[in-house]
Amino acid sequence: MELFVPVLARSRGAAPELGDALLDEYLRFTAARLRPNSVTAQAFDLKVFFTVVGKRPLAVGTADVLAFIEAQRQPRRGGNVVRLSDGEQGLAASTIKRRLATVTSLFDYLIARGVCERQPVPRSITPRTRSLRGAPLVRAPKRLPRILAPGEAVALTNALRTQRDLAMVTLMLRAGLRRCEVLGVRFTDIQPGDQRVFICAGKGGHERIVPVDPLFFTHLHAYLSLERPRDGDGERVFVVLKGPNRGRPLTAAGLDEVLAGARRRAGLAHATCHELRHTCFTRLREAGMSLEAIQAQAGHANLDTTRLYLHLSNDWLADQYRDAMTVLADIYDNNGAVS
């Protein structure tokens, strides 16, 4: 059997290609229904899978999928690199699950098209004795995301060097915007009179209008007055300030570089864009903001996603526990026996 080695190719205005008719067709279908970043992520996941398997789609079987999982769990870079988050050497379980979801979606499409008869990605392993659901292929532990302590947040903002950077971090730390949402802000999206920002590039293509801390508009005014190049991109608010790309829209890598420099100067071990977002909603919940309001601010499609901030808000849990124990104290005597 001929070894298949996918080659990821991109061209402006077109869906990515991998050098196989069925894969390229699926990516064109995906490009018609998902945002560009999602299409790129799926193309990369498929490239990794078929590089490891070495077969074309119709030749893939369940044994290939199981072998792929095993290969993904092998130590990386000779076993010299260990993740600090969980002490493991292979790829994170969440990454493997995402790649399997992409492969599953591909074969669901091929089955719907009538060119494939069965789904090679099993939904589960052998069913458990006491469960109607089988054991998952990959167990991904659910961990709470890290957030910044108040002192860390202050240290980070103090380490920022420009008004542009302060404006961007304020949108994430005090309004909970995603990195892509910050970078996608246009002049027409800003509503200073209402102190709101229109989000047109939200996750999944969803739009929303969110209130923003007045501090953002202070930094924004200073940035536009003193720092932004006059010949910069006419639509996007945040652009590169110097260098060969001066005036062009700031990229995700550029924003990550800004935060990396601020972290280093502030002496912080962590402070990613998404951690700033998590910090924002945790503090809003601790301040008494309802879950429904946080859901609207965050742009979550499902309230269950927002419930995460109940667990991050230690004050909320402690208050609930104290209130419950106050009630229980009335039915217990001093010796701990039920009266």
From TrEMBL:
Keyword hit for DNA-binding: yes
Gene3D superfamilies, sorted: 1.10.150.130, Intergrase catalytic core (1.10.443.10)
Keywords: DNA recombination, DNA-binding
Recorded coiled-coil stretches: none
One Pfam family, short name: Phage_integrase
Domain annotation Core-binding (CB): ranges: 17-111
Keyword DNA-binding: yes
Domain Tyr recombinase: 143-322
InterPro entries membership: CB (IPR044068), DNA_brk_join_enz (IPR011010), Integrase-like_cat_sf (IPR013762), Integrase_catalytic (IPR002104), Integrase_recombinase_N (IPR010998), Tyrosine_recombinase_XerCD (IPR050090)
Family that this chain belongs to: Belongs to the 'phage' integrase family.
Protein's recorded name: Site-specific integrase
